[in-house]
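Chain A, query sequence.
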Amino acid sequence: MFKTKLSQSHTWGELNTSKFMDRHVGAIAALILISLLSSLSGTPFDHSISNGWEAFLWGLADPVISLNCLVGIVAIGLLSSVFVHGAAIAGCFVFATVLGIVIHIFQLNLPGTEIAIAESVGAAIAISTIIFGTMLMMPNQLNFLVLALLGISAGLFQGYANAESIVAAGIIPVVTYILGITLTLFAVAMSARKIGVAMGMGEINRILPWISLAGFAFCAIGIVFLSNSLI
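Chain A, predicted structure.
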């Protein structure tokens, strides 16, 4: 009788874990689909913000409508699941993104350099995506400090790029935009991390073919965006 109860409890736990992971996978898949549809439908990535509510909504949307940025966030979350305290890596990425926004808002660029800077930042984000995709193909070779530094670098570039739409906005739109973008970044990164933990990415010598496939796909996306930024 006791063994039967243990068996039922174990089965129920597996079912809950499966449902839990399916929900996160479904949510991220939906975001990637939204990002693809936004790109295909010509959704304007360059937009102006006039009030706090509009800023909050664009803050929620900006990390999602750019496929290059979105896959970078997902990759960071997956990679962080390799480490017990990997949530700190995702946290560093989110904090660095906010810092990148602040740097762009208060930095005075020389006249005529905006286009060159935008192209350089776009190329840097694409390169970060390629690096993260490569890391996903060999997760057992990761180093906590190296991944944290790469996450900070990627976050700074992404935040700098996202801040373009609120450079001329007031203080309230800036605050609400940062709040919105922080919520989205945290939700996506931590969802990806939970997927990785549930799949056992942190287990030594465990090979996950779908993670390697995802890494390859992320590399391909990064290469496409890098090519477009250099043309």
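Helices lie at 2-41, 52-65, 67-80, 87-106, 114-136, 144-162, 171-199, 209-230. The longest helix spans residues 2-41.
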